[in-house]
Amino acid sequence: MLSRSESRLQPLLREELFRPSLKFWADKFNYESDISFSPYGQVFQQLIDKKSVLNDPQANARVVCLRIEDWLRDLSVSDDEEIHNYLTDNVDAFCNYVKEAKGYSSAPLFIFITENSPVSNITGEMQAGFENRIKASLSNENNVFVSTSEDIRKQYPVDNYYDEQRDTLGHIPFTEEYFVALGTTVFRKIQAQQRSPFKVIVLDCDNTLWGGVCGESGPEGIILSEPFRYLQSFMLDQKDSGKILCLCSKNVQEDVDKVFSGRKDMVLTEKDIVASKINWQPKSTNIKELSEELSLGLDSFIFIDDNPVECAEVRSQCPGVMTLNLPENPEEIPSFLDHVWAFDQLTTTSEDKSRTKLYQENIRRSGFKSSTSSMKDFIAGLNLEVEIREPDEEEISRVSQLTYRTNQFNFTTIRRSEKEIKDLMESGYSCKICRVKDRFGDYGLVGVLIFTIREEYLELDSLMLSCRVLGRGVEHKMLQSLAREAKNKDLSSVKINFESTKKNLPAGKFLESVKNGEDSLQFSTDYLINLEYDPVDHDQEGEQVKSDPLTEVSRDESITNNDTLVELIGKELNSALSILNEIRPNKNGRDHLSKGTGKMSDAEVEKLITEIWEDVLGSNGIRSDQHFFDVGGTSLKAVEVLSGLNETFSKNLTVVSLFEHSTIQSLVELVQDRPSSNDGLNKILDRAVTRRERFRARR
Fold first, then answer.
1. DSSP 663
2. 3-class state of residue 414 by DSSP
3. Does the first or last residue of the chain, that is N or C, have fewer Cβ atoms within 10 Å of its Cβ?
């Protein structure tokens, strides 16, 4: 997400309208954000300029907001075919510029395509075609994320999104509500990309997966209405994106089994569930046991239950778990799930898609291990196959993912994006991946080596290995592979970089065993090639991993332990309007007065105008004799004020109106249709125009 100290977010959009929603969410998540804005309407210029605000190398998130209709502002043709060809050329040029700009910064680049106006010459079919063209062109570009107008609309629908008056006055096409929808989507997408995803979802059964109590009603008596089916479908999608599904319910196992086997309208099946704890123990105890069995930290768990008492118990005993209490009304479940940001995940690797299968295989391995008499017999019986090689293009995303997700067996815990890994390889570093199989199945891509060749030795920059293959000799084979690389280059030694952290104790213990009492982490090539693996000794290290499940993942604290905020967003801040009302609680405070009907006193009119000024300028205590441009007014904020005046008083005021009546006093007279009593109009106008020109020059 936006870093707590030096984040730069660069939207190409009108600053005053876009900033409030971004700041609102930054404040909610306790981020001190440094948000920089590029000049309005210079998308192409900003993309191709290496030194632009958008391409600032210090940025950790870059955003482009694009309205395709804007490319037609200066086009004087109306022929559909000519418009289509013109826009196609612009879309293709835009995609090429994005590909070029991607290399100017390691920060991810987010593209948001907004709605066109209802009177646009671009049909819905044309718009969808252009959006799909952009997505297809950029789909293979790492670190580039595209959201279409439909994506924004589905998550935060806004009926009255277009503001014709503001569009005419100042090229501001959207209502405040739509700007809030857009800003919220931007913040949410960036957060999803930059935080570690949760790995496990633990689900209650009764009144969570279905309505009713299966032990009382039996499989035929439980309710599988649309909200519960939606929840199950949602969880199936989460499974497909890499989440592990588990059950934790105070029930009789047989009663739960009968529902899964007897109700053919269940969306989830037993095959989708990796592990279950169906008993009468405290749910916190069951979740801790699941954490041990899966060798995954509690802070990688999401627990969902309908019962607030059960949720409170888990929050108390397992504070690292993201605990979510479902809405009381089942009809609200779909909206709640759609707006729980903790479920968001922008990319899915092949390993993610097969994670359920991987963990089910691991459970079978555990059963096999318990049937063997020694660790040596267990390892021998696995028939391990270890492949170490350079990664394919499509495997780079998994390499990056491992740098962020792996903590226990990570020598340096350096986090790297896909682009940073590619840049490193282009600068002379080498990257090798490790894939592992055994008799029970394929573990997938579980390890990474990043190293470089120095003049006299090979230097290991990073080594990381997934916990699920630790204690089986794979780590030894990785170091042996590294030594063979050095041998091929006629290098006599290998230098290993290691940075001790609170969470990589297993990696440290492994290196201590390799050092064998020596102080140095620079080893002879021949020594590492002949490194032997002792299953008995290394199993003790493996036990250290299992005994400390809390060390598995490191999550952004902005969302960890913040279930209350996550629930609040899911239940209340789940629409653009509700968010807008939080940002500007007085926004609708004037609705009790008739707009353009009846006669209001000067005092009432002055109060309303003052509220509009204070809303737009973000300032309180503005006097009726102060000039608009003396209290923070700009030409853009003038458009906002005029929009509020016209809406409130059913007027058709123009920008000139505000320059000629730049105090609240004079606006009262204008709204009341009286000749202005201000004798200094010309002086006011001169001052306002001078300030306007000065403001334009700055922009």
1. B
2. coil
3. C
